[in-house]
């Protein structure tokens, strides 16, 4: 399980290897002892999670991950379970060879994997094929085995990382094991929290193997898990002028809903005043649906300027369009120099006409928008979401939120937080418009761009999880508004 004080710290594979090497070289803990500790931790997790399990099959690769598997098999055999080991290779290396010898001395059953052989029946399969070192697609024989494991109805425990998942990036270059539970060792690998990891990791437990605190001293983290945050209670004499004025710019013809969702999310997140700059034909609908929004029809920059002068923070892009009207308003908003959130067509226009900001701006792209902003492809963005998020922040001088499973929040100075909340029900229209409004409201209430983005992403995702208690399919963006209000006041817990 996550253990204090490193429960929010995320590391690259290279950093975890350095920690492992420190334990061996500086603390005198042998690699085989670390392997024993990992196997013990994983076996304990297996017994907790599947207390009725009596038959297990352990799939072992030739490296240290396979060594963990051999030792777990020995522990299970010693506990009276029926255990079978299926090996990818009969030539394990280093400490894994010692682990295999330990297993063989226990007189357990082993056989080499044959692609046409049926998988044994079991209560639990244990994936010990590949560890953190794999950054390519599994070879053909292993890929066939992984596909067979995934096609079975047997629950899977993955050791350290589901085989086939890149523990650095969250990408799967080929097939990967779909685990029900993953027990990862020493430190949390950043790739287990974003991208395709959500479909592979299952429940995640981190075990530091009883290593002393000194091991982590001087080792910087690569990223951090977001923590649940909300603003403190308001002063008893607060008035609306103390809580900021957000101006949301967008809503071209046919997209009034986008700017309404943005504006309403800003209100529900605590902004004192929210104005809308939109097309004239949207005014009746906006005023009827949400009279608290101060909707204004604007034909161009001259009519937008007085609204800009009164606003503290801008939310630019929902339903804006990329035509002459939207482009003119976008340019005028950027020229104002005010803190802002850019989303949707605000980002598409930025990709066409790049602009570097001064750190008071938050960009909230999904992978497609991120690809346009970086001049690359969606596939390349998703191959390394950490690198893409940091590149966006550095290139544009803004805090960047790379949305998706395991959303990332990147600062231009390299800091990066990973969101652990959210669900597939949020993959629906309008969710991004809400996030824009939430972050803008937090900016208006005095948060820095970094804090507003981090808090806003967390509140938005947690609200999505609360709203999904009645089911993910059919979730509407507007279903998040009440949970957002409760979470923002610290009244709801997920």
TrEMBL record:
AMP binds at residues 403-407, 432. In the C-terminal section; belongs to the NnrD/CARKD family. Belongs to the NnrD/CARKD family. Gene3D superfamilies: 3.40.1190.20, YjeF N-terminal domain. SUPFAM superfamilies: Ribokinase-like (SSF53613), YjeF N-terminal domain-like (SSF64153). Homotetramer. This is Bifunctional NAD(P)H-hydrate repair enzyme. K(+) binds at residues 65, 127, 163. (6S)-NADPHX binds at residues 64-68, 131-137, 160, 258, 319, 366, 433. Residues 223-491 form the YjeF C-terminal domain. Pfam families: Carb_kinase, YjeF_N. HAMAP family: NADHX_dehydratase, NADHX_epimerase. Its cofactor is K(+); Mg(2+). Residues 16-217 form the YjeF N-terminal domain. InterPro entries: CARKD (IPR000631), Nnr (IPR030677), Ribokinase-like (IPR029056), YjeF_N_dom (IPR004443), YjeF_N_dom_sf (IPR036652). Binds 1 potassium ion per subunit. The keyword Lyase applies. Catalyzes the dehydration of the S-form of NAD(P)HX at the expense of ADP, which is converted to AMP. Together with NAD(P)HX epimerase, which catalyzes the epimerization of the S- and R-forms, the enzyme allows the repair of both epimers of NAD(P)HX, a damaged form of NAD(P)H that is a result of enzymatic or heat-dependent hydration. Its EC number is 4.2.1.136, 5.1.99.6. It catalyses: (6R)-NADHX = (6S)-NADHX; (6S)-NADHX + ADP = AMP + phosphate + NADH + H(+); (6S)-NADPHX + ADP = AMP + phosphate + NADPH + H(+); (6R)-NADPHX = (6S)-NADPHX. Keywords: ATP-binding, Isomerase, Lyase, Metal-binding, Multifunctional enzyme, NAD, NADP, Nucleotide-binding, Potassium.
